[in-house]
Design goal:
CATH class of the largest domain: Alpha Beta
CATH superfamily of the largest domain: Histidine kinase-like ATPase, C-terminal domain
Helix content: 25-40%
Structural class: alpha+beta
CATH topology of the largest domain: Heat Shock Protein 90
Shape: elongated
Low-confidence stretches: 1-6, 110-116
Amino acid sequence: MVEYHLGHAMEVANDWLMVLEGRRVIYSNRGLLEALQTPSESVIGHELVDIFPSRVCGSLDELLEEMHRREGRLVTGSLECDDAMLGSTALAVRGETRGGYTYLSINRPMMDAEGSKDRLMEVEDRLSALLGLAASAGIGLGVFEVLPDGTFLAKSFNEHIIEIFNRPEKELLSVSPVEYVHPDDRHIAQGAIDSMMESGTPSGPIHIRIIDGEGEIVHVQIINSMLSPPNERLGITFVQDMTTVKEALDQQNRMVQAIERVDETVILADAKGLIFYANPAALRNSGYSLEEVVGQHMTMFSSPEGVDTMTKEALAELLNRGWWRGDVMAITKDGVRYPVEVSGSIVKDSHGMPSMFVIISRKILERQRFEAQLIMTKGNHERLRDLLEWELFPKMQRSIERLEALVEIGGTENDPDALPRVVEEATQVLSSARHMVQGLPSPERAEELRPLDLDTALRDRLPGMVGRYRHEGKTITMDLRPSEQAITVSANDMLPDMIMRLFDVLVRMASMEGHAFTVSMATIGGAEIPGTRTGDWAEGEEPVFASISITAPGLVVGSDLRSLLVRQELRSRGPLPIDEHFAIETSRLLVFLFNCHIYVEHDEAQRRDRLVIIMPLAPEA
């Protein structure tokens, strides 16, 4: 805006201001065009020597050559001209060449005082009109005079100057405006004035602080420019109040500093989802540099399995509600996966169109670690119960019955080895129980994974757990179908517990005809997983995963349950209902413990849904 008004000021200047590219005119203000009675189109694009032929104005070529030789330095001189329009006159010339362009100011000095006074009045009239224009734009504009001793005095100004300085007009006219500049910034203001007087070129913009009439600090931006002879002591100044902008920038800087100090990942992306900012935590957690992140899509931090489908569905919710919360499996530059809870919001422009995405994610390791340890503890309790109920108690009961039988028949006279055998059997039972108890995994080992045969891991404990299941009087059955080939996964003893939790979730929240589950095991290529970014793998390096699919007659996984299990999506900002909380925590734990990816597919032939859990194979598999 300041540059816009500065352009107006250039048009009302007495000087003929021109910009040359080589010797060709590419810009000209009105300047002497009126005196020459020359339209601007006959000047722009023409060679300067065609406008001022050497027969009319001598020494022009010499001045231009001097400017080229002294590039970047101001050159002054005069042209003795004899023109039908201008008459016999001397033109004052000053200019400089910089970067292939020459900037010229040509003026016809006024020889008589009366003409000079008339010209000054004309300039002041035009400046008065410019003052009113600047005031309507909210910009302070004034005319100043620099006295021979260097004193800087205000001559006139618009109302906005009075508003910015918050001082009476008489007070502003009585002293140099530099007196109102903050003491720490006066050297900046005075330096700009001195530079302008020495070079004759506009100063600024400079940003300084002034002290208004009430002692408050006001941040301003100032541009000063001297007028041309015969008004070489007069100039114009543009003053813009930047206090609001400065406060906004300070607040923005404080927010940026806060964002850069948090442990959560913070990503800002444009309307196309391309990242233009990532805080240090995002770079630290992912292992990328800022240069590697900027310009990439905001999903670059997500594990590729199923990300395209999840992003499409989550984006639809984000555009619909303006926010989205859920869990995803993040991935580092080195390929390490870890679960995060993501909160996304959308910023819209004045037309209601998306202009920016704000993505915040935080690791949920501690919470999931605690939950996993609780499940491990529960699993140990179930193992102890099975040990007592099916191993220790029955075998000890048989030993007691044999002892009672020995007593009834009168001792061991007929079989001296009977009692030692009973004692040995009881000792073996206790030793076996002790060994099993000692072999129970501690809760702290809930995250430790080891190679497990998938069929064996599920078949050892899952049938017993299914047989004991009760929910509101409902029971379930299971048909376990192994793969034709052995599948070795990275898992631990909690895998059956998590599959059992999925059964429970489906019983509570899905629709089905009866509760007869079928569990099938197989392997699947990465490209076969719906919504996967296949471009993340080089040709011939497509990974293979283990899959566990769960279905039941007439199974329908509704959209709400699907969003909880597949995207771990929090559909409200407050506490979740118990069943929804149980479902999302189950999905989170599968992601946390086994780096799983979950999706739902529909079997059109069987008219039922299938819940599919994708697990990485063991490294040696």
